[in-house]
Amino acid sequence: MPDQSRDEILIAAESDGLLSPEIPFGILCRAAGYIPGDMTPVALDHLAAAASAASLQSVSQLALAEMLERLGPAPRNADLAEGLAAGLPQDLLEEALRLPGGILRTADALRAAAVDTPAPPPAVFAARPLDIALEPSLLAALKEGGEIYFLQDALPAGDAPARLVDLSQAVSPDGFQDGFLVSAIETAAAGMKDGVFLLSGLGAAVMALGLDYASDAGIAAGAALSALVRSAATGTAFSAAHSRALNIEPRKTGSKRACRVLILPVSDPMLALPDCDSDGAAPVRAVLTYGDDAPSLSRAARIGLASRSPESLPLVLDRIANSGVQDLESSLGRERLRDRGFTEAALDRVSRALGEGLPLNAAFSRWVLGDEIISHDLKLTPENFDADGRGVLSAMGFSRADIARAEAAIDGAGEAIAARALVECGFIVDISPDDEIRFAAACNKALGGGVVVSVGARAGLDMAEAAIADGLSAHLVGHRTPPPDEVRDRMEHILVLAEELAEEAHTPMASPEFVEPRFAARTRLPDRRKGYIQKATVGGHKVYLHTGEFDDGNLGEIFLDMHKEGAAFRSLMNNFAIATSIGLQYGVPLEEYVDAFVFTRFEPAGQVTGNDRITRATSILDYIFRELAVSYLGRDDLAEVDVTHDGLGRGAGDATREPAEFTEEAAQIISRGFSRGHLPDNIVILDKRRAEKQAEAELDAETEELESPAYLEQGCESCGSFTVFAISDEGDTACDTCGEEGRVSK
């Protein structure tokens, strides 16, 4: 095959998302190159200690960075002495004073090191029946966040060239494109000596073929797809049994290649195949996808439904698009809402919000209904319902029981409608762990080994044991557990005591007297407010951040919208945003939220796309508060990319001009967060010109006041006008109207 033709095939396969670019295997799999050993209590203890040490290192680096930041850019010797007394290490302080940039640069370096703290290497053991005596040590290691592989055979080395294959992209509305798949694999394998192909999207591919993941036909199709890729990559034969499962022609043996085909969990699948609907041999977990406007079926579900029941596809898509109307009708009833004052315009807005995946309290909030509907139609005060729509429903006569039933009816309604529609068309969407093992075992047999099943630690060890018994490898992912209740209670007590001691140390002795408690007052945001909307994805999960600002440009509220998530998680994030907004309006500094939530670690996490200053995040909360810190606090130490926000030109980015400081006058018309605290270079606030105009007006008024004569009380004897003024100290007068001169009579 000519080189140009090979390049064209690879370019087409990569642009279609069928093949990823060539990536070192070690980046895709953290267990690359490890030789399986025997699981012992000592090895598990080492894993738990390494995971705990990595977490402790990250926490200690952040704590030291915070201590240095409190000292400021140019601390006095007395301040440094207080820092040493508070526990700041002497060696660290000496190094900070010696390095260029001083204290704050050292703090920035510590924060960067905390973000980049590597996770401990995984423990790799030989796959064999688990020893009951070792289960307590195994569970303890997983609770500390350890990562464990039980492998049947050793994996390739970390520097081996590898490509991911999304098999679902080989299935189009026109059917299975086996020729394109085989050509792409053969072309890629020819340029990869000892290369590795990792299969993803098997579950989505089976659904796109119109088959059930757990059915005999679906399992046979998954095994046949695996065997077809192995045949193209290694030159082995493609049997007649597998060809019948896919309804394609068998393949004879070709030129032998030393490539391997594996199915295993990838460390960061978004890095290579961001649009893949399923990972490895796992089934499709969500058949509903949320776009910018409305939810719809995933690509695999649409193609599969069109193949299996084409007449049902338009009906299903229409039901999903109108899911908000159905949710509203089934939960509260449109007639009941009309009787209580909700207009058609209000109901349409709520239905559209529910269809986009918002929970009930957000769909009935002020920011969906609008101030005009709340004040004019419902006769309520909009400021009382900033974010929680439950208050609107309660004020309009719905009981707590009504609202609770409505939330239960709407919770996960979109996913339920999509799943129910697929079930009505003959699909099986309820997949058990046993079904996953059966599917993976069939693929493992077709590949001759190399299939690793990923098991969450919270699911227990039963699935891992069943996978090992069926000849599969297993991957257990641990999650660091939060501190127990007794530790949290003790820490709260310690913090209260510390605050009391600090107050006693800084409060002069005085006679005891009763002090009336003072309560913070809530500062309401203006009805018409500024802010910005930031759309991004964190680990493949779409996040919309909305902000609202006070008149002075400071942050006063946030709203979080997440799509393609369960209703419980969306509701939790929405109510977290409400709690944060209320705290900001009661005077809680944004710095306190930033210090509390940056670098928190939980899923979803990983690569961030759509944000020009943040490229990776350890959690959704880490991303949100790093974005707010960069935009409203000028915390560039929490950003990874230095990008200016100039308008017509690059400004500071190309060293042509310094960015103008944000002024109080600018805060009246421009969002401080959107401009990240600096004026874009295509906006000029004409403070000087306005000041000059005001000065000229004041000068004219003074001049006019000086030029106007002081008129006397008597009128002019000649013309009768009361414009007579004195022209000498001897009593001589003149009329400003007719010019007649005279003398004041005494």
Short description:
This protein has 746 residues and is α+β, with helices and mostly antiparallel strands. It has 29 helices and 22 strands.
Report what the structure shows.
- The chain has a 5-stranded antiparallel beta sheet with strand order 15-14-13-16-17.
- It is globular and about 130 Å long.
- By secondary structure, it is of the alpha+beta class.
- About 3% of the residues have low confidence.
- Helix 24 links the parallel strand 11 and strand 12.
- It contains 29 helices and 22 strands.
- Helix 3 packs parallel to helix 7.
Write the layout of secondary structure elements.
Elements: H1 3-15, E1 23-24, H2 25-28, H3 41-71, H4 77-85, H5 90-98, H6 102-115, E2 123-126, H7 135-143, E3 147-151, E4 161-166, E5 171-172, E6 175-176, H8 178-190, E7 196-200, H9 202-208, H10 216-234, H11 240-246, E8 260-262, E9 288-290, E10 295-297, H12 299-308, H13 313-321, H14 323-331, H15 334-339, H16 344-355, H17 360-363, H18 366-369, H19 371-377, H20 390-395, H21 400-410, H22 413-424, H23 433-447, E11 452-456, H24 462-469, E12 473-477, H25 485-506, E13 533-538, E14 541-549, E15 555-562, H26 567-585, H27 590-597, E16 606-609, E17 616-617, H28 620-632, E18 660-661, E19 678-679, H29 687-707, E20 724-726, E21 732-735, E22 741-743
Parallel strand pairs: 2-3, 4-7, 7-8, 11-12
Antiparallel strand pairs: 1-4, 3-12, 5-6, 9-10, 13-14, 13-16, 14-15, 16-17, 18-19, 20-21, 21-22
Helix pairs in contact: 1-8, 3-6, 3-7, 5-6, 8-10, 9-10, 9-12, 10-11, 10-23, 14-16, 14-21, 27-28
